[in-house]
Amino acid sequence: MSRRKVVSPIFQGRRFFLMLALISVIGVLMLRAAWLEVYQQEMLQEQAGKRQNRIVSVAAYRGMITDRNGEPMAVSSPVESLWCNPKKLLAVYKELRDEFDVATQQAAEAEDEDASASAHVAGLRFTKLKEGLGRIEEVLELEAGELLDKLEGAGDKHFFYLGRHLPPELADEVLELDLPGVASTSEYRRFYPLAETSGHVVGMTNIDGVGLEGVEKAMNDHLAGRNGKKRVVLDGRRRVIENIESIEDMVPGQSAQLSIDQRIQYMAYKALKTQVYKLKAQAGSLVVLDARSGEILAMANLPSFNPNNRKQLEAYRYRNRAVTDKFEPGSTLKPLTIAAALEARVIGADVEINTSPGHLTFGKYTIRDPGNYGSLSLGAILSKSSNVGASRVALLMNPRDHWMFLNRVGFGRVPNAGLSGETSGQLGNYSKWGKVDRASHGYGYGLSTSLLQITHAYSPFAADGKLMPATIYKRNEPVPGQQVMSRETAHTVLKMMESVVQEGGTGKRAMVDGYRVAGKTGTAYKYINGKYRKDKYLTSFIGIAPASQPRLVVAVQIDEPKLDSSGGRAAAPVFSKVMTESLRLLDVPPDDLPEVKQAETMTSTKEGAT
């Protein structure tokens, strides 16, 4: 006998009620979906656009800086900068921390599995966020807890840079942590392949890519370009997943090609650094100038700086002393004094100057030579570096003629070579020159110049009396020069300067094997607190080679050497090294070999016979 199953009316009522409730919920959801799709579509699309569509800046690529041969001296490489919404990140951090604390307390009080599980989940979420913040601190090399302090210090800001110019792989690693409010922006970082070797010439930019020093500053508008704008779609991590449209085109920066030869620059800096350290000097500067074109092939300074390492930048290191610092040139001005006198026709090239008794007195002011040289030719005044001789030559000139000559070769005027911070030096008006001023100007005191200025002033001796405009940028076309002295004067004084770099001259250590060299040594005492200090001085040597067919002018200055006091001992050896290697690198043929001399003698003989 089978039993009949009886269903309770109450159970049937519950089932009907649940089915009715489920159908009602589904109906409400469908109505809501229809409402949103039909009547709220435009609003929802607008809200989605606000959350996903963004107008972002497209960073302009800063133009390269290259040397004269196209080798890079400054390039931009892509980097990422991490940023966050500190208010949002802190809020999430505090919320998860409080949630974890509450769950832990409840688990301890309830002592059941559900409370322990809740505490465990809250702990995992909070720990993940803490580990993410810790990883950011590792990437940014911060102390533990320092990041939270920085976020707290940001106050109510909605934008805060966590780290600038990070390698893309490190930024991606942080973004993978999926921290709330953390995102990145693509930028460019400047890189300088020659580092400290050319730091003063190329200069540097700040972290936002704006030029601060050197060519980077002088040519900032040319190099910088212009940022663009585009509309993009971002994902949940604020990464670009689609480019929608370009609003404003990015204009990349233009490149700048310098006159610098990287090979000569590196070698010159190394030679200068070695000598500055060897002599325990305070500083040093060096300029290599192509006299035929006016192009600067090398420019070095000590102390220097590495523009790639911003953490060790110190203001006193990145001053380009060769163009910004002015000094009294001392004896290196004497060849220009003789040239000025020859141009003014107050003396002839074969005249002798009486320097007896070895000093010249003007009231309380006395000009002295190391000894009584007696009567000296103009060439001997240079080779022996006679202050009395140079003063007597200067006194023969009308002050106006002397001033005009010095001004023509660049004294008292900014060189305008294209570098930031160039000084004009100081050349007082001739109407205010007294007899002491006229005499002291003859041997390089009472006026001031930069190393670039006086190097440039020497270039007419190597260019048939023409002064070519100085430049730090490569010239692809010849430019006209200014005839600042006659061809005859330039050749005559150049020949006189050769005696300085021979046995018995003050610059014999500047000799270059296989080449004839002309030049002049200089030692100038510093004027401090109203008097000249015998224990503080600048030593220098400026020379030209090859003397028969001049090409390069090299100037070296050593500031306050502790071990050698004269330009011939401190600066001339650096000149010799730099000039030797520069001539070799430029394939300039020797002019002081026996076979060359023989060929020149035979040519002279034939010309004489004709």
UniProtKB/TrEMBL annotation:
TM spans (from-to): 16-35
A Pfam family that the UniProt record links to this protein: PBP_dimer
Pathway stated in the Swiss-Prot or TrEMBL entry: Cell wall biogenesis; peptidoglycan biosynthesis
Compartment annotation: Cell inner membrane; Membrane
Residues of the active site: S331
Boundaries of every Penicillin-binding protein transpeptidase domain copy: 284-579
Keyword field contains Transmembrane helix: yes
Reactions catalysed: Preferential cleavage: (Ac)2-L-Lys-D-Ala-|-D-Ala. Also transpeptidation of peptidyl-alanyl moieties that are N-acyl substituents of D-alanine
Compositional bias per record (Polar residues), positions renumbered to this chain: 600-610
Gene3D superfamilies for this protein: 1.10.150.770, 3.30.450.330, DD-peptidase/beta-lactamase superfamily, Penicillin-binding protein 2a (Domain 2)
KW Transmembrane (keyword) present: yes
Membrane topology recorded in Swiss-Prot or TrEMBL: Single-pass membrane protein
Enzyme Commission number: 3.4.16.4
InterPro entries, sorted: Beta-lactam/transpept (IPR050515), Beta-lactam/transpept-like (IPR012338), FtsI_transpept (IPR037532), PBP_dimer (IPR005311), PBP_dimer_sf (IPR036138), PCN-bd_Tpept (IPR001460)
GO CC annotation terms, alphabetical: plasma membrane
Family: Belongs to the transpeptidase family. FtsI subfamily.
Protein name from the UniProt record: Peptidoglycan D,D-transpeptidase FtsI
Species of the source: uncultured Thiotrichaceae bacterium
Gene: ftsI
